[in-house]
Amino acid sequence: MSFCLETYLQQNDDYEILLARSGVKECYKLIKDNSKEIIHVNPGDKVLGARLIGIPPIPVGINEDKGTILITYTKPCHGTAAIELPLKSEDIAEIREMDIGVN
Amino acid sequence: MKALILLGCPEAPSQTPMAVYASYKLKQLGYDVSIASNPAAAKLVEVSDPEKNYIGELLNIDKCLDSLEEGQFDLLVGFVHKDAAASFFITYYHILQTKSIALVFEQDGDLVEEYREMVESSTDAEIVAVRAYHNPTPLRVRFDKTLNKIMESE
Cα dist. B141→A40, A50, B116, B147, B151 in Å? Predict the structure, then answer.
């Protein structure tokens, strides 16, 4: 599955930008501080079909109760943002399976 | 042989002339060169070489990333002059798993060191790290040296 996060962000309003125009490490800290569950992936791994950009290991926050996922989004001129997106319950297991196992 | 030049935000003056130069050097060495960037950086490169004497195919950085596969290119050359550029370079490196050169440059020496460490801790790329902004010469000299080193080792 291929998913364009940029298109999603333009065409929907059900997400929240928690930090914008920031550095990758600041966004990683925010994800860790604001997520009940964290998994880690490698740069380029596709989460919900979108390749994640960053320094390994890349944290992905899962808030199952809230039904959201917290990921980074990077653009060359605008830096990195931390974005909270809605997450379908059926996608949670698939995302957990992507964990590369970093504590 | 295929090479990919990865551009960052175009606000660093040294990037565009160095991108054209790097493309020229790589073509001389027999590489089929593509350049991945955002539209603004692509426009600067396009205007700098309107007949494409030196540059190769221009690719959108996001679309290219989405379809990128291991081994698709034999050499990656990336411009790293921002935190985001380091993230993009490291990501392209991890997908391609090919020999790579990171051109790390900034006006501020502390930022040069910070970006160098980001790349060094996450890749085995050859790293050119130098203070540079308006003047591309320090970057060009070290790029030539690194390219020669890579070619001699093959």
Answer: 39, 37, 18, 10, 16
